[in-house]
Each structure stands twice: as structure tokens, then as C-alpha cells.
């Protein structure tokens, strides 16, 4: 006698991490190839970029192909020279790359439910964005203070969601899912850090990583599975190492496959 079990609705929460967030592509690629269907996505910061692309129907293959183009190479160069205290310039670079993919798409155009997370510095509360233009929501979610322009809307001043929810587990739990995979990048820098000379980017990078790790530890118990790609060897703006970062996502997901399948199927 066989018993039919209703498939679980799997939600995935994609964390922030700058260039390291490209590891999410590797995670999604492996899950797709293994027939693990994602029903909904929530993303914080770089996780919101990958989540929006994925939910809007852009394939992993298309994104990987884009990484070979001259447009991506120009973005890599601009990312390498992102300048603190010139947020408008940095924001224009983000606009340019998002426009290549999303154009005027809205949340209603998504093929899967999607939520982007930002932080409102007026109310000091996290904001779950599920309506309007995708690019507007992403720009709010990635707005690292001092690096990118905050987004003002509806009386709110929105900045990078990682300030309050680096791994958007609470956000994905508000969606129609009954199983949550959290992708929390292991951003603890394993490289030797010179104490006598460290760049402003290094300070931003390390500060964000420490802050996010402290917050993440309070949320992990809310996820059914945590995938933690080892991305600590990559810097926050090291987009030139995209393929290596993506592979780090694949590697850690393969290690978790048996556990995921046991719990999902």
C-alpha cells in the first residue's frame, strides 16, 4: 500500500554579502539540477539581486553567459573602484547592470513569489517589499550606508537589509512555504589581516561581516536547512572572481544534498 505525500513548498532565503552573494547562483544551480523545486524566494542585499533575477525567469545559464560579456567586465572594473562618500556614482553603476536584466519589470511579472528586504532607518524596522518595480526594491535592499544612496518612499528611508535581517528567514516565513532553506554566506575572512594598514573597503567588509554574523546566529534556528558557502576568502567587491564564488556555492550545496532530500522528499 502506497501513501501519497503532498510535496513541500520550499522557500529559500538568500543573504547579503556583496560579490560573495554570487554564491547563491551556485546554490540555485545545484538545487535545480537535483529537481529540488523552489516555490518562493526572499533576498537581502546581494541576495535580493539574485532572487529578483531568478524569480523573474532569467535562467542561471543566461546569467553565467552574461558574466562573459564586456558589459559585465565594465561593471567589474567599476565595482573595484567603488568609492565611499560618492554613493550617487556607485548607485548609477548598480542601475546600469540591473537595467540590462530587469528593465521595467515589477513583482507582478515574477514567475515565483519574491520578497526583497530593506531596513527603514526612520522606524528602525525591517521592510519586506513585494510590490512595485523590482529595480527600486533591489536598490533599497543593497543600499550599504555610505556606499549607495538610500531609497526614500512612503515616508521611509531605506538602506541595506543586512542592517536588520542579513539572512531573510523571517521574510520567507511570511510567504506561502512550509520548508525553509537559508543560504548564509560564511563571510568570516580567513585571510591574514594587516593591523597596521587596512583599506576603507576592508574596514567596511569586516564590520559588515561581524555585524551580520551576530544577527544571523539569532535566526538560524528558524530555518529547516542552512547552507553556508565558504566565501570568506573573497572580498565584498571582488566581482572579478565570480566563477570561483559561484563554485563555492555549488560545493557547499552538494554537501547538503543528502540532508535536504531526506527532509524534503
- How many runs of DSSP E, i.e. beta strands? 8
Oligomer: single chain
Strand content: 15-25%
Report the uncertain regions.
none
Overall pLDDT confidence: 86
How many separate helices? 9
- Helix and strand sequence: EHEHHHHEEHEEHEHEH
The first-to-last residue Cα distance is 18 Å
* C-alpha-based Rg, rounded: 18 Å
Q: Classify the secondary structure makeup into a structural class.
A: alpha/beta
Most strands sheet: 8 strands, mixed
Which term fits the overall shape?
globular
The percentage helix is 40-55%
Structure commentary:
Helix 4 runs antiparallel to helix 5. The model has no long low-confidence stretch (mean pLDDT 86). With 265 residues, the protein is an alpha/beta fold. Strands 1, 2, 3, 4, 5, 6, 7 and 8 form an 8-stranded mixed sheet that branches.
Task: List its traits.
8 strands, 265 residues
What would a concise description of this structure say?
41% of the residues lie in helices and 15% in strands. The chain has 265 residues and is an alpha/beta fold. It is globular, with a radius of gyration of 18 Å.
Amino acid at each position: 500500500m502506497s501513501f501519497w505525500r503532498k510535496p513541500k513548498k520550499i522557500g529559500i532565503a538568500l543573504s547579503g554579502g556583496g560579490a560573495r552573494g554570487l554564491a547563491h547562483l551556485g546554490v540555485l544551480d545545484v538545487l535545480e539540477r537535483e529537481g529540488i523545486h523552489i516555490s518562493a524566494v526572499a533576498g537581502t542585499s546581494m541576495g535580493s539581486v539574485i532572487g529578483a533575477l531568478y524569480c523573474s525567469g532569467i535562467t542561471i545559464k543566461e546569467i553565467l553567459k552574461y558574466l562573459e560579456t564586456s558589459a559585465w567586465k565594465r561593471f567589474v572594473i567599476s565595482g573595484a573602484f567603488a568609492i565611499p562618500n560618492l554613493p550617487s556614482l556607485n548607485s548609477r553603476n548598480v542601475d546600469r547592470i540591473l537595467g540590462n536584466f530587469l528593465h521595467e519589470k515589477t513583482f507582478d511579472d515574477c514567475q515565483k513569489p519574491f520578497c526583497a528586504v530593506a531596513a527603514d532607518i526612520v522606524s528602525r524596522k525591517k521592510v519586506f517589499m513585494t510590490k512595485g518595480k523590482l529595480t527600486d526594491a533591489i536598490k533599497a535592499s543593497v543600499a550599504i550606508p555610505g556606499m549607495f544612496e538610500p531609497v526614500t518612499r512612503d515616508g521611509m528611508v531605506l538602506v541595506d537589509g543586512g542592517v536588520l535581517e542579513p539572512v531573510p528567514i523571517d521574510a520567507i516565513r511570511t510567504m506561502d512555504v512550509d520548508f525553509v532553506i537559508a543560504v548564509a554566506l560564511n563571510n568570516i575572512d580567513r585571510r591574514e589581516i594587516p593591523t597596521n594598514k587596512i583599506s576603507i573597503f576592508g574596514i567596511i567588509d569586516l564590520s559588515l561581516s561581524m555585524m551580520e554574523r551576530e544577527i544571523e546566529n539569532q535566526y538560524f534556528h528558524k530555518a529547516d536547512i542552512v547552507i553556508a558557502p565558504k566565501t570568506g576568502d573573497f572580498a565584498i567587491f571582488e566581482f572579478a572572481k565570480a566563477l570561483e564564488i559561484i563554485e563555492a556555492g555549488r560545493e557547499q550545496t552538494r554537501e547538503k544534498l543528502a540532508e535536504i532530500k531526506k527532509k524534503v522528499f
